[in-house]
Amino acid sequence: MAEIFEHMRDGEQRIGARQPVPSHAATNIARKVLQDGFEGRLPLSTKPCLGIVLGTGMGLLVNHLDEKRTVDFSELGWLPSATAIGHAGRLVWGHVENQPVVMLQGRVHAYEGQPVEMLYRGIELFAALGIEQVLLTNASGGLTSDLAVGEIVVLNDHIDFVRNTLAVEYLKTDGSHVYDELLSIGAVRAAQVAGHRCRRGVYAYCLGPNYETRAEYRMLKMLGADVVGMSTVPEVTVARSFGMRVVAASVVTNLADSIDCEDRQPIHGEDVCQTAASATNGVWTIVRKLLGEL
Length: 294
Ligand code: HPA
Known about the structure:
single chain; alpha/beta; Rossmann fold; five-stranded mixed barrel; 10 helices; globular; binds hypoxanthine
């Protein structure tokens, strides 16, 4: 066990040879990492009702949890430390109206140069905890002309321009029913009723870390994407392979139309983070809906 732990701390998945660990094995290891390291500190015998990945600017949502327990990714040794702006890198366990909820405050992205399996370790951890329903959040650039900054787009599909080579078990995921219709429709309605701009849309997954050029924004729009971002799709794919019900909420932080002009202003990561944070109330409404509180 100590040996496995050491490998995980390295941020490397080396158990014997450098083979990718099959999904069930990875989940078993994640479970063991939790049990051996955190029994007593985390209520591991309780199955959380919902797992949430908090993307750029969404980190403050942890403040809604009661009876919080927190473990840094570095201490956990299963998830690599996040380096992107606005990604704290913490596992946060707590309650919403007495319902257990687990949040990952931050994630790693493909552009951070981590091995590909690090992009979905969080979902393997959720699987180890028996979580059946996930909410994935992110910040995105808005492509469709009538989107507004701060609007939430609940994904109904995606276009994967990165096509990370995931472990083979995860590639069997059926691409036709990825995002949970019922939960997603409920999420949009709840956010709208609470007064937030919210709609369904298609997410283009690009590698980054640079934001797109004007021509790229135009191309993505022509190809049928509504928003563009640099995360979430590997997590979605792996979550579906575990049979989890997936809802993904993307907060629009900048608009392609306003960029596609001669006096284009540069996009700054700090602004993206702040703008995303301004939509946390809307995302929180979605969380409460998924928990059956609304
Ligand atoms: N492109 C890619 N990712 C993003 C953007 C964008 O314009 N805005 C926020 N995340």
